[in-house]
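Problem 3 from the worked examples.
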Amino acid sequence: MTITIYGIKNCDTMKKARSWLDDHGVAYDFHDYKTAGIAKDKLKQWSDEVGWETLLNRAGTTFKKLLDADKEGLNERKALALMAEQPSMIKRPVLDLGPKRVVGFKPDIYAKEVPAKARKNG
C-alpha cells in the first residue's frame, strides 16, 4: 500500500503531519500542490468522499482574501474550481491511505487510521 500525503511544503500543519509519519516509520510519498498542482478529478473524488466543505480551508489567508463575490453562493462546483485554481485553499494535509482519505492533522486520528502494518515500529 502506498500512502500519499498532499499539501504544501512550508505549511506548519504539514510539517507536524510529516513528522508524525516519520516518527512512526511510515513510508509515504509527498505531493506538493504548489509545485505539482492537483487534478480536478482528484478533487472531485475527494469531495465525493469527505465533502467539499471538509476540503475547503476557509480559515486560510487565501480564502479570506477572496472577493466577497467569490465567497457568495459557494457550492461544490464553485468550491472545487477555486481549490483547483488556488490549491492553498485545500485543507491540509490530505492523507491518502488507499481506501480512505484523512483531511487535516490530529495525532490521535492518525494513530487510529494509519494501518499498523504501514508503520515500521507499529
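Problem 4, a separate protein:
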Amino acid sequence: MDQQDILRNIIAMVEAEKRPRASLEAGETGPATEQARLTAPARALDRCGDLLRRRRAKAEFGGNPDEARPRPTGEVEGYQF
C-alpha cells in the first residue's frame, strides 16, 4: 500500500464516519447504536493515520517507506498526542 492508497483509505473512512454522526444528529438513531457503528471506522482511521505518519517519517530520514507496516489497533489506540 503506497501513500496515495493510504490517503484514499483515510478519505473513505472519514466519509464513512460522517454518515453515522449525521444520523445521530438528525435523531434517526440513538447514541449506543451510533457509538457501535463508529468504533470500527475510528480504529481503522487511527491505524491508517499512524501508518501514513510512519511512512512519511521513514522517507524524511532516508528510510524505505515501504518497510512501514500497520501496527495493531491496541498499540495505536494507546497513543497520546
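Solution to problem 4. Helices lie at 3-25, 31-60, 73-77. The two ends are 25 Å apart (CA to CA).
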